[in-house]
Amino acid sequence: MDLSQELALGIDIGGTNTKYGLVNHRGDIIEKGEIRTDSFPTIEEFVEGLHKTLSPLIAKAGAGDSLRGIGIGAPNGNYYTGTIDYAPNLHWRGVIPLAKLVSERFGLRCSLTNDANAAAVGEMMYGAARGMKDFIMITLGTGVGSGIVANGHVVYGHDGFAGELGHTIIRHGGRKHWSTKLDGSLEAYCSATGIVLTARELLAASNEESLLRNFSDKELDSKRIYDCAIQGDRIAAEVYRFTGQILGEALANFVMFSSPEAIILFGGVINAGELIMAPTKLHMEKNLLPIFQDKVKLVFSELKEADAAILGASALVWEMRD
Amino acid sequence: MDLSQELALGIDIGGTNTKYGLVNHRGDIIEKGEIRTDSFPTIEEFVEGLHKTLSPLIAKAGAGDSLRGIGIGAPNGNYYTGTIDYAPNLHWRGVIPLAKLVSERFGLRCSLTNDANAAAVGEMMYGAARGMKDFIMITLGTGVGSGIVANGHVVYGHDGFAGELGHTIIRHGGRKHWSTKLDGSLEAYCSATGIVLTARELLAASNEESLLRNFSDKELDSKRIYDCAIQGDRIAAEVYRFTGQILGEALANFVMFSSPEAIILFGGVINAGELIMAPTKLHMEKNLLPIFQDKVKLVFSELKEADAAILGASALVWEMRD
Fold this sequence. Notes:
Largest sheet of chain A: 5 strands, mixed
Shape of chain A: globular
CATH superfamily of the largest domain in chain A: ATPase, nucleotide binding domain
Oligomer: homodimer
CATH class of the largest domain in chain A: Alpha Beta
Strand order of the largest sheet of chain A: 3-2-1-4-8
Largest interface: A-B, 43 and 42 residues
Number of helices of chain A: 9
Distance between the termini of chain A: 27 Å
Helix content of chain A: 25-40%
Order of helices and strands of chain A: EEEHEEEEHEHEEEHHHHEHEH
Number of domains of chain A: 2
């Protein structure tokens, strides 16, 4: 390990696993690992468990010398307060002052935000948004997350909760979201879950032959729909075309809000590549005013999906203001 | 005139008239006036005309001593470049380097932005957004304009064109905009023009008695629709209820983007008061995630409409960085 360099500790908290990594300024992960999130009944035990696991690593890294601080990405993480607020995917309830607890236990500065904002900071520091001051990152996974950067800073809003673009309404009176109950939100269509629902709707609406009919409701997922689409299945291809159309329409609205240099797409859904990118770009451009057309770069993330969360969390450390 | 105070010269350029005013830090307009925009065939003649009119005023104000600079609000004004780019309402064509021309002719620093952004800066400096770092200003007039402030700064985007919220799509496949040709944009419904179109549609859709039927198509305007609504006319009231619903839905999307402390409404349409405010608030709250509900202040501008443009333009001067 190179002891002469500055390092940041990035921690990404998920419902099942918590991943961590020591990262340098270039975005190289020097060392990484994970612990089970759900094996700690209380937050205090979790922080203690983290400390026990990470202490040897921190000692190796040279402690106060080269380790600049700890960055945490967590669901419902609030940058201003350093708390995790009522995260539905975590078993700890209420408002959790995690940044404070970690900072006190480790004796290091700690910054916390939600996972989508952390991903945006990671992309700005190490990925496709290097050098950009205005961009939007959209994560298309189980849900649809987003991180917005304007004037070189993450837009947190007055309360720390800005950037919930997955919950904006794109189809008035459209598909009801299974959890938020909002009608016609972006996430209801463009998440992996939404894509499967679109496939089921299209299958139910006709008797047309489709490879998708070989799968049970339980087996049908966005990956299998993609596989069928590249085998030439018409309904499967239509699922991605429709998903891209909705996404493109939503992106046009976002562009007219903050006029970003780029929109960066991330998450499992983008494995579909051009199948989703082509209709997304088409419908984004179609719904833009002329002054915005053919200007916004629509690109995929340059961070490896497995590492992105750790990198994003670690990047918060370089953002800390003295 | 108090010569001991610092002053800013605010200039608001409209298609017909150009208004100007000398403004102090408190937002008092010390002196104001206007010249015809359209009486100057070229931009050079316009700048010369401005200079001739304003020189005595500037001399009285004590020139370099107390006059800090010039701020200009103009349609399609670009903050980064100081240019007016292809403004459809002005008779000068192409890209006009107005900030440079004015700065050179007057020997004073000059900052320029579009009228909606200027209004937002004015509201932050002198009006309802004093002390706020995150808010959105929506102007409901002939068109629908917007200025967005995040982290204490106007969001200009990477090219200076951010904040075109009037052109975001709120109804997929909805009413085609008379000028942009986009389907279902906010401006197509919530501008004064859109409100009249809604009234015509409702009148055409039934034979129900309505005071609105006393007016010819030419006579029908948002003011008359308001007058009929407060006289108890059901269709006129429905026009404003529907307008508020669309506006509220759009505001919910904007809130989930930048989580502002307040949304400030401005422009002729807000003279309808509660008639538009009540349905707007109802439908905004209805379409928000719980974490955003009952938090965003929805308020009317505190600036007099006649002075707001001058105040906004002048406020750009206090924003200038040395």
